[in-house]
Amino acid sequence: MKFEKINIVLTLFVLINYSTSAQNKKINAREKMAFIKGGIYTPLYGSKEEGSGIKVAPFFIDKYPVTNAQFLKFVEENPKWQRSKAKKLFADKNYLSNWKSDLELGKNVLPNSPVTNVSWFAAKAYCEYYKKRLPSVDEWELVAKASTNQSDGSKDQNYIKQILEWYSRPATEKISPVGSRGKNYWGIYDMHGLVWEWTSDFFSALVTGESRGDSGLERNLFCGSGSVNASDFKNYPAFMRSAFRSSLKANYTTSNLGFRCAKDFK
Amino acid sequence: MKKVLIISASLSVILLGIVIYLLMGVKNVESASIKEVKQTSSEKKSCCAEVKNENAGDNSIYQLESVWKTEAGNKITLNDLKGKRQIMAMVFANCTYACPLIVNDMKKIESAINRSDVNFLLVSIDPKRDTPETLTQYAKNNKLDLGRWRLLTGDENGISELAAVLGFKYKKEPDGSFSHSNIINVLDENGVVAYQHFGLNQDVQDVVEAINKNKEQ
Q1: Is A207 part of any domain?
Q2: What does the pLDDT average to over A44-57?
Q3: Residue A173 lies in a domain
Q4: A112-129: pLDDT as tens digits
Q5: For the domain that residue A201 is a member of, what is the CATH number?
Q6: Using the beta-carbon criterion (under 8 Å), do B47 and A212 form an inter-chain contact?
Q7: Torsional class of B137: left (φ above 0), alpha (ψ -120 to 50), beta (otherwise)
Q8: A26 falls within a domain
Q9: Under an 8 A CB cutoff, do A203 and B160 touch?
Q10: A250 to chain B, minimum CA–CA distance in Å?
Q11: Four-residue CA torsion sign, A163, A167, A169, A170
């Protein structure tokens, strides 16, 4: 009888504890995301009429790129995404290759730096595990065009120049911690200057750099590509991002490609 | 006792012989394969990519767990396609230019190979409009033999994952149509991409050869 009581009390205690920690987790997750009220974004390619843009619905997005420490927790809880266990179809041989082992970051990898060497599938699985998703190209670009004090910095040549300077610097071996590249108009950190980031529909970048035949704007190769025209010829960083995305495959991993998650606003 | 000695001695001699033979064989094979690689790379057509076939299971696209509906309305996973080679393309029924040409190219392949152990698969990228009924109608309009053709419709997540593993690019346009790459894929019995043919209205002989080569192996 006594034991039962103790048991019930214990169970209650555990339950309460569990629910508060779950709630904390939720709140934490919310706090680490920022609300983007949406807006009009003009994609670099593919808009059919001049001046028309794509309406991006309101959404949440992570303030920071996902860190090594966060990703480590994810692979601890999802063993199939550990380095030695991930299938080749979903992550190439360089997946998490900068870590010391399956569950150790090692000396050269800062816990608070963005995780890199992750594939699209791995990034997608991470976001889904936390009931989130990857941002679309349109969402990512909408957030990325904001400078420090304007929601649209794409006409600000100084701002574009800053981004280009980052693109032209060689990648350093050690990636700085998240937050080190400052926040933009929306309160989002590190959209430029730290790592490249995966998007949910990276495969929608239709122009590839390959000479093999999937490139060019021939109607033969892309249905509908007759309408493909660049909308902003001065926005070199956008061209570079588009070219980079179109060179990616879903199991690719590179040492300067990470991600952050987004969430629908309901 | 003597017998045992003799047997073991002769056995070890035979073993040694086998080892030497193997070592020489490997060397020959190596130099042969290097030659082959050199040849194929210089002969490689600009339009197509031969896909390397390492660890079959690990590269099978049938590892994708998405659920699809056939034109008959049956629920299947990609793994249910295991066992037969598939000639496969991603299309949408409302497509007016490229997709009819792709289907036409696939029908050319169908008549060129003239064999029953290869199936044909069309996967829709337009889940909103391409219901099983639409796909059945599409098959009728294009005179597809549903004994060997199958048409699938799924959800956006499944489609994006499949597109991602195939390197198939697509984008929904504001008018509801899609821009997309034109690829005919040859999948082996285990769902590993054995060959990809890019573009439209080209000679499909390369695909036919890829299928036959795949069969010989």
Answers
A1: yes
A2: 66
A3: yes
A4: 999 999 999 999 999 999
A5: 3.90.1580
A6: yes
A7: alpha
A8: no
A9: yes
A10: 5
A11: positive
**Residue A89 contacts B where some CB pair is shorter than 8 Å:** yes
Domain span at residue A96 reads 32-264
**H, E, C per residue of chain A:** CHHHHHHHHHHHHHHHHHHHHHHHHHHHHHHCEEEECCEEECCCCCCCCCCCCEEECCEEEECCCCEHHHHHHHHHHCHHHCCCCCCCCCCCCCCCCCCCECCECCCCCCCCCECCCCCHHHHHHHHHHCCCECCCHHHHHHHHCCCCCCCCCCCCHHHHHHHHHHHHCCCCCCCCCCCCCCECCCCCECCCCCCEECCCCHHHCCCCCCCCCCCCCCCCCEECHHHCCCCCCCCHHHHHHHHHHHCCCCCCCCCCEECCCEEECC
* A213/A221 Cα distance (integer angstroms): 7
Tell me how many domains chain A contains.
1
Q: In this complex, is the C-beta atom of A243 within 8 Å of any C-beta atom belonging to chain B?
A: no
Q: What is the ipTM of this complex?
A: 0.73
Question: Which residue in B157, B129, B210, B7 sits closest to A127, CA to CA?
Answer: B157
pLDDT tens-place string over residues A57-111: 999 999 999 999 999 999 999 999 999 999 999 999 999 999 999 999 998 899 9
Q: Is residue A142 part of a domain?
A: yes
**pLDDT for the residue A80:** 95
Mean pLDDT of chain A: 79
Q: Which residue would you say has higher pLDDT here, A12 or A264?
A: A264
